[in-house]
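Predict structure. Chain length: 419.
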Amino acid sequence: MRLGRAAAVATAAALTTTACLGPTGGARVEQADASGDGTLRIGLILDNTGPQNFLNAPQLAAAKLAVKEINAAGGHKGKPVELLPTTISGDTAAQAKALAAAKADVVIGPTDSSRAPAAIDVLANARIAMISPANSASGLSGYESKGYYFRTSAADIAQAPVLVKLAKDSGAATIAVVYEEGSYGKDVSNAVAAAAKQSGLGTVAVTAFAPGHAQQAAAAAKAAAPDAVVLVARAGAQGAIAELNNAGVAGKKLILSDGAVNQYGSGLGSSALDGTRGILPGTFASAHFQGELVSVDPQLQDMTFAAETYDAVNLAAVAAAAAQDDAGASIAAGLIAVSGGKVQTSGSGPTGDAAVCKNYQECLDLLRAGKRPDYDGESGRIGFDAHGDVSSANYVVYTYGADNMSTMSGSETAGSSGS
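Prediction complete.
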C-alpha cells in the first residue's frame, strides 16, 4: 500500500460553506419505480493527473475485476454488465455528462473530494447513482445530492477516536494537538479533542500552523507538557515533524493523522520518528485480492482504493439485483439495505432476514433464498447511513523505525462520525 494516499483526497473549503447541511434520505430511502432498460451500465470517473495518476490503475483494475466476477455469476438479469469506456481528466463535470450520455446507471468515483460536487450536481440531476471509493471530506456528508451520492470511504473525522486510542494505548493521560490550517486540519483536530474528552484524556493544547511555519505551534505543544502529541497535517507535515523534533517532541510521543503518514527516511533527522505511530484509512489488501487484481492488470504496482472500488461496483450490482431493475433511482433506493445499513427506508431494497455475503455470487444466492444480503466486502463492513456514508471505518496502523520508515503494525476500526 503506497503511503501518502491522503494527498489525493483534498478537502475543498467550499464544501463547508456552500453545501446544504444535513440533507438525508432522498433517493436513498424513497420507493423507486422500475425504469431501467435491462442493461446495467457502470461508469468510472478517473480524475487523477500529474503525481497522483498512479491512483487510476488500481481503481480501474478493481472495477474490471468486479464486473468480470458479476458477469461470471450471470450478470444482471441474465445480461452482461457493461463497464463503460474510461477517460482521465480533472474535469469531473465533463466526465459525468459523458457517462450520463452513455446511459450509465451508476458511476464510481471521483477520487478527489474537491472534485466531487461538480460530478454530484450532474449525476443527481440525471438520476444516476454515484459511489466514490475515496472521498473523505467531512462536508460531503451534507452536500445536496437528492440522495444519489454514496461513498465507501469514511470521512476524515472518523480517524479521531483511533488517534486518541493510540495515545491512550501508550499510557498517555494528556494530549496536545498540532494541526495544519485548513478545513482538514480544523475538522480532524476538533474531532480529536472531542474524542479525547469522551475517552477521558485531557487535551492540554490545540495549536494551528501554516505550512512551513510550525515552530511556534511546536513550541506551544512542548510547553503544555502533554504525554503525547497528535499531528494533523498534510502538505506541511514534514516541516511540522522537524519543528516538533527540534522542540523535543519525537519518537513514541508523536502520533500522525492519515495525511501526515509517509515514508520520510533521510528527509528527517536520525530517529526523529523512531516509535512514532500513524494511520491510513482502509484495510490491507489480502494476498488473494492482490493476486486477482494483478491478473486483471499485470503492471499493477499499487492497491490504493482498489478494495473500496471493488466494493462500490458489487454493491451497485447487488442493489440492482435486489430491485430487479438497473435504473439509478432503483440502485440508490436499495444501497442502504444491501450494505447492511440500519436506516428505515421505503425504497425497493429486499426486506427478508439479513445475512452477510462477501461477493456478488453469494449475495445473489441469498436473494434467491428470500434473504436480504448484507454485503461486507474487501474494504470491510459498509452499512450506509442516511447520508450515504459508511457506518464504520477501518484503519491500518503503521509504526516507524529509527530510519524514519514505517511498516504495518496493526489495524483499528471506528464509527464514521468521529466519536
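Summary: The first strand starts at residue 41 and ends at 44.
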